[in-house]
């Protein structure tokens, strides 16, 4: 039902021509885990390319798998895309490599197949998309040939990635092909299956050192395994590169900051970014590129771990200095996160979240704008309200931080065709969009614009987690408070008449008395129905209850001048009226009689609704005793009841 609603909305926008075409082209990038060291350069190079081509970018990022040892995955990561009109983009870039949750990459791919703009895949070949393919095999070939042709090594070993991974299979296949072409055993002196991560380094080092032919060089299928292997070899007293040369793959930031600096193969991401966006610009301009698949050539980085570059003292100092700066910053940012978590835990309303974010969001990088939007249902109730029912496809901004005053808050709701706020500045913009959710619910999404070309740090993701948890806590608090109010209402409400019961009447009346700031004229009344026993005996208790409800409704209708009314029990009612007068009392009784007469004229059940009353007007202050006022009123009511025909004093 939701999807059909969204499709109808999309059709409406197109048919009515409400979509205003922007002058600057806008492209989207879909990726995951972009804050990781391995992926974070993706954002920087696409930032640079977007600025060079003067286009806007919206980067959709997901957390992916959270944690390692006891990691878990979250729901709702891709559900938010159901509420966005992706056809608003002039083109889309898809980086499926970083989705480390089973099925997530395939889910995004399916969504992108339904869009009408061109889609480019930059990490794997996907039929039906344009593709920018990295010459993975060529990069592996260059690295093996470097050891064979430049270093003249013949005893070469290989540390593969997980052999169920397509990249691992391709790179191992190319290693074997190059070795065979040079007349050497396909597996060199030995092949070890690693994990594309740090965990297999020690095991791999023991394997290679146990071989009958000690390797002169070890080629690793990525940088992380190479660094882990080098550390393990060091612990065994084996020097790199003096005893064994080691090479990695991917040209990661960590590998270039490692000691010794890794010989590796770069991914040429800057080239990929420029060529991807340029292709999308050409396609948007109507330049045909049907069936075009571009190929990017990797470049070797010949550094210290193979012996091509000396290990310099200055280089070591630079790395140590950067590590110290990063360690100090990490400690400070961690303290800021702890402070923000505590402050968010203390907020008691959504509006206060914005103040905490604006004051404390200093640890994930410099940003110029941050917006958080939450779902609204068909009644306009936001997702953090416990009365929220079902998403309507529209969102309300609950955090709006615009440091440079570039954005307009109109319209007051967002969604589908306008989920990014409109900027008034004439420059290209790069936005990051992420889901805001917790383990139980999708609340909405966030949009952040950084001031530089680097993506935010992982502390931004921590903020989103905490914002989601805070919204969830506020929703549960709201639900609890509403339940408490409901229970409190039940505890002071009479079931039969929905008036205050005796407890509710006493509490509210005493609270009114205690609030007096001086003397005041008050009135206490006791009203008792006449003839209830006869009604019950002759017409049944159901009709007796109906008569009680009728009298209760009459009393409630007459309470329009601050009177407090409640059912004391049976057929007796109490009324307390602060700041009263003889005139108001007379009007109250006259109206009760008028309403009773009206009821009797329309009542054909064979009985007459009547009542007796006693009233007591007196001066009192905040020390007045409600019980004394009611005692006098009750005696006067009894006196009046005894004067009626058919009644006698006991």
Ends apart, CA distance between termini: 71 Å
CATH class of the largest domain: Alpha Beta
SS strand fraction:
15-25%
Q: Determine the CATH topology of the largest domain.
A: Beta-Lactamase
Task: Report on the architecture of this protein.
This protein has 650 residues and is of the alpha/beta class. The chain folds into three domains: 24-117 and 316-478, 2-Layer Sandwich (Beta-Lactamase), CATH 3.30.450; 136-268 and 298-311, Rossmann fold (3-Layer(aba) Sandwich); 502-642, Alpha-Beta Plaits, CATH 3.30.70.270. It is built from 17 helices and 20 strands. It has helices spanning 2-16, 40-53, 104-113, 136-150, 166-181, 201-209, 223-235, 253-257, 269-284, 313-346, 350-360, 458-491, 502-514, 532-539, 541-558, 582-602, 626-642, and strands spanning 26-32, 56-62, 91-94, 119-121, 130-134, 156-160, 190-193, 217-220, 245-247, 264-265, 293-296, 300-301, 367-376, 394-402, 430-437, 442-450, 520-530, 564-569, 572-577, 610-620. Residues 1-22 have low confidence and may be disordered.
Annotate the secondary structure layout.
Layout: H1 2-16, E1 26-32, H2 40-53, E2 56-62, E3 91-94, H3 104-113, E4 119-121, E5 130-134, H4 136-150, E6 156-160, H5 166-181, E7 190-193, H6 201-209, E8 217-220, H7 223-235, E9 245-247, H8 253-257, E10 264-265, H9 269-284, E11 293-296, E12 300-301, H10 313-346, H11 350-360, E13 367-376, E14 394-402, E15 430-437, E16 442-450, H12 458-491, H13 502-514, E17 520-530, H14 532-539, H15 541-558, E18 564-569, E19 572-577, H16 582-602, E20 610-620, H17 626-642
Parallel strand pairs: 1-2, 1-3, 2-15, 3-4, 4-5, 5-11, 6-7, 6-8, 8-9
Antiparallel strand pairs: 10-12, 13-14, 13-16, 15-16, 17-19, 17-20, 18-19
Helix pairs in contact: 2-9, 4-5, 6-7, 10-11, 10-12, 14-15, 15-16
């Amino acid at each position: 039902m939701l999807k059909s609603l969204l499709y109808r909305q999309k059709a409406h926008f197109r048919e009515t021509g409400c979509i205003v075409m922007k002058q600057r082209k806008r492209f989207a990038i879909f990726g995951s885990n972009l804050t990781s060291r391995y992926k974070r350069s993706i954002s920087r190079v696409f930032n640079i390319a977007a600025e060079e081509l003067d286009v806007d970018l919206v980067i959709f990022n997901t957390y992916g798998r959270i944690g390692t040892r006891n990691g878990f995955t979250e729901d709702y990561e891709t559900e938010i895309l159901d509420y966005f009109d992706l056809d608003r983009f002039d083109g889309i870039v898809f980086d499926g490599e970083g989705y480390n949750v089973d099925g997530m990459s395939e889910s995004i791919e399916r969504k992108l197949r339904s869009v009408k703009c061109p889609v480019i895949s930059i990490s794997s070949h996907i039929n039906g998309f344009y593709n920018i393919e990295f010459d993975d095999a060529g990069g592996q070939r260059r690295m093996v040939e470097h050891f064979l042709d430049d270093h003249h090594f013949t005893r070469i070993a290989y540390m593969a990635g997980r052999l169920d991974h397509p990249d691992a299979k391709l790179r191992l296949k190319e290693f074997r092909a190059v070795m065979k072409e040079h007349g050497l055993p396909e597996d060199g002196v030995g092949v070890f299956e690693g994990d594309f991560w740090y965990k297999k380094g020690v095991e791999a080092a023991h394997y290679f050192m146990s071989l009958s032919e000690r390797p002169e060089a070890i080629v690793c299928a990525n940088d992380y395994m190479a660094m882990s292997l080098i550390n393990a070899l060091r612990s065994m007293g084996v020097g790199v590169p003096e005893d064994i040369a080691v090479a990695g793959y991917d040209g990661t930031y960590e590998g270039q900051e490692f000691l010794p600096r890794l010989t590796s193969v770069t991914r040429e991401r800057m080239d990929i970014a420029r060529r991807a966006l340029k292709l999308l610009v050409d396609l948007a301009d109507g330049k045909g590129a049907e069936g075009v698949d571009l190929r990017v050539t990797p470049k070797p980085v010949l550094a210290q771990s193979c012996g091509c570059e000396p290990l310099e003292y200055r280089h070591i100092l630079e790395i140590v200095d950067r590590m110290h700066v990063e360690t100090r910053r990490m400690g400070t940012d961690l303290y800021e996160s702890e402070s923000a978590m505590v402050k968010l835990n203390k907020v008691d309303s959504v509006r206060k979240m914005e103040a905490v974010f604006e004051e404390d969001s200093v640890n994930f990088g410099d940003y110029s704008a941050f917006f958080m939007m939450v779902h609204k249902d068909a009644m306009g109730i936001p997702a953090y309200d416990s009365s929220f029912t079902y998403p309507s496809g529209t969102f309300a901004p609950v955090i709006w931080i615009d440091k440079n005053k570039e954005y307009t808050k109109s319209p007051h709701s967002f969604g589908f065709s306008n989920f990014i706020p409109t900027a008034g500045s004439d420059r290209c913009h790069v936005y990051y969009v992420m889901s805001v959710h917790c383990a139980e619910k999708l609340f909405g999404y966030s949009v952040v614009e950084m001031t530089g070309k680097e993506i935010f740090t992982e502390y931004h993701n921590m903020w989103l987690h905490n914002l989601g948890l805070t919204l969830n806590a506020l929703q549960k608090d709201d639900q609890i408070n509403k339940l408490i109010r409901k229970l409190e209402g039940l505890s002071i409400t009479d079931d039969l008449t929905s008036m205050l019961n005796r407890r509710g009447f006493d509490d509210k009346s005493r609270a009114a008395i205690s609030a007096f700031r001086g003397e005041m004229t008050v009135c206490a009344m006791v009203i008792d129905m006449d003839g209830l026993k006869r009604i019950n005996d002759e017409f049944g208790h159901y009709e007796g209850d109906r008569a009680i409800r009728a009298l209760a409704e009459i009393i409630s209708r007459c309470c329009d001048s601050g009177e407090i009314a409640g059912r004391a029990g049976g057929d007796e009612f109490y009324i307390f009226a602060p700041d009263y007068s003889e005139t108001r009392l007379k009007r109250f009784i006259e109206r009760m009689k008028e309403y009773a007469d009206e009821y009797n004229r329309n009542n054909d059940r064979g009985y007459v609704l009547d009542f007796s009353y006693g009233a007591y007007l007196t001066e009192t202050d905040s020390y007045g005793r409600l019980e004394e006022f009611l005692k006098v009123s009750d005696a006067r009511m009894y006196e009046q009841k005894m004067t009626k025909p058919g009644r006698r004093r006991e």
